[in-house]
Design goal:
Helices cover 18% and strands 42% of the residues. Strand 11 and strand 12 form a beta hairpin. It starts with a helix and ends with a strand.
């Protein structure tokens, strides 16, 4: 891979983390709703069910659901494996989760293992009294935090299914509840269900009477999953459209679920060709873009120091970027949250602290803006293998491997900023590049860092793109679509805003200077 080319023009990436989390959020409701029969209330049985995962017609992976009943516990195990392509590179991604609860629905513990980068991330949660003790481990790095249980009522997985069984037994056509799933994080997700029809569906060579159900969840409130369940409560099939990509879950036997995959290529479908080319994008200072999607409502992107957004219609946004007139940050920003060490941004990692010290050894301690820029330039040269082969690595991984795309640049920079006591977060959005992924003059999905810095007595979000060299630090072809602290328990919520527009975004260049 030509490192110098990427460094000179910016380095987009396909939104792996957003896509994977969205797929799981789209099918998790289906996997939770496996015991609709009233008999489940009295005679629970062990389950082991396999599913094929298709992405736009390609066999992309599989999922497994298990439920084990013992004398004093119910254990729910869920897993998902995907194999996708970025260009010619195949990227394997997997998640496994386990939840243990008592027969009366009290949480005992849960565990998840995510493999999105070079090393798996294992998170264990112990429920004690009114608290959650959260331990995260990656390589030799272990962090432990304690949080209060969420105030809102929520259900464990088996208790959620019992609630559904009762709702159906009472002939309720709409119902909802909040639950915690280990693969979706530690915060409750609200799921809403509507029974649409009773019909006959063909599956595994049989014609079965079934329920057709629509569901939504609070992670992606504007995206609807359509599910089909047999009358005994087994999920037969589910379909969700994530922007321009259709994800289908199909019940299958184990051998079929584990048979050879045909990974889909996801990079090309996320690149956006605007209506006009942009000359010298790395030197632009002002821009105005009209962003539109084909279906659904376009969630308003964030206003930043240099970006302002205005709704034109439910599906269109006018976005103005002016680097020469930055505005003050919201005074209510939680600086403490922006300094936390987390799994993705482990600012307390000695290796990250050492890198920050190395980058800042010749920079004055009181010139925060200069130190932030020095860290950006350092990360640009430190990551010497500009590679698309990494899914979404943590800052600690990147510190070891020195490899990755835009998301790895952003994570390492944000962690090093926090290590230097500079509040930081990441931004997911788009960048215009002359060439990328075999295409020319396109917008590609991108990630960069922001630092909260006091300038002339006022707090300001400063954009820092570590994929760009020292001579061209930032430009007006960066479109911010969402922000995220990447703190534990908050990793995915900010990123998911991008999901509904994937594959259906169009950009009209209104003006550029």
């Amino acid at each position: 891979m030509n490192t110098s080319t990427h460094s000179a023009q910016g380095f987009p990436c396909s939104p792996i983390r957003q896509l994977f989390t969205s797929i799981w959020a789209g099918i998790s409701a289906a996997l939770l709703v496996l015991l609709w029969l009233p008999a489940a209330l009295a005679n629970p049985v062990d389950l082991d069910i396999w599913y094929i995962l298709e992405m736009s017609g390609s066999r992309a992976g599989y999922s497994q659901y298990q439920e084990v009943h013992q004398d004093n516990t119910i254990t729910t195990n869920t897993s998902m494996y995907l194999l996708i392509k970025r260009g010619t590179l195949e990227i394997p991604i997997s998640m496994q989760g386990s939840f243990i609860e008592s027969p009366d629905g009290k949480p005992i513990s849960m565990r998840s293992v995510q493999e999105l980068g070079a090393a798996p991330v294992t998170t264990t949660v112990l429920f004690q009294d009114n608290q959650m003790i959260i331990t995260t481990q990656q390589n030799e790095q272990t962090t432990t935090t304690t949080q209060t249980l969420p105030d809102e009522p929520w259900l464990t997985p088996a208790a959620a299914r019992t609630t559904i069984a009762i709702a159906l037994k009472q002939n309720q056509t709409t119902f909802k509840f909040s639950s915690i799933d280990p693969l979706s994080g530690i915060m409750p997700i609200t799921q809403s269900f509507t029974i649409l029809d009773q019909l006959t569906i063909k599956t595994l060579g049989k014609a079965l009477p079934a329920y057709k159900v629509s569901s939504t969840n609070s992670l992606m409130p504007n995206i609807t999953t359509i599910q089909f369940f047999s009358t005994d409560g087994t999920l037969i099939r589910s379909t969700v459209n994530l922007g321009g990509m259709t994800i289908t879950t199909i019940a299958a036997d184990k051998d079929l679920a584990l048979s050879k995959l045909s990974p889909p290529e996801i990079m090309a479908s996320t690149l956006v060709k605007p209506d006009k080319n942009i000359k010298n994008p790395r030197h632009t200072r002002q821009a105005q873009f009209l962003l539109s999607i084909q279906e659904g409502q376009f969630q308003l992107p964030p206003d930043t120091a240099v970006q302002r957004t205005q709704r034109v219609s439910p599906s269109s946004i006018m976005l103005t970027i002016d680097l020469d007139q930055p505005v003050e940050a919201d005074a209510s920003e939680d600086a403490a949250a922006l300094l936390e060490s987390s799994t993705m941004l482990n600012a307390s990692d000695p290796a990250i602290k050492a890198l920050a010290d190395q980058a800042l050894k010749n920079h004055a301690p009181d010139d925060i803006a200069d130190r932030a820029e020095a860290l950006r330039v350092f990360v640009n040269s430190y990551i010497n293998e500009k590679s698309l082969s990494v899914g979404f690595a943590s800052a600690s991984q990147v510190a070891q491997t020195r490899e990755g795309d835009c998301s790895e640049h952003a994570c390492l920079l944000a962690a090093m900023l926090r290590a230097d006591k500079i509040p930081a977060r990441v931004v997911s959005g788009l960048i215009y590049v002359p060439r990328f992924g075999g295409k020319s003059n396109i917008f590609g999905y991108h990630m960069w860092a922001q630092a909260l810095i006091t300038i002339d007595g006022k707090p300001r979000w400063v954009d820092l793109d570590a994929t760009l060299p020292k001579a061209t630090p930032f430009d007006a072809s960066h479109i911010a679509l969402s922000t995220s602290t990447l703190n534990d328990g908050q990793v995915d919520n900010g990123l998911l805003q991008i999901t509904p527009i994937l594959g259906q975004l169009s950009i009209s260049v209104q003006s550029i200077k």
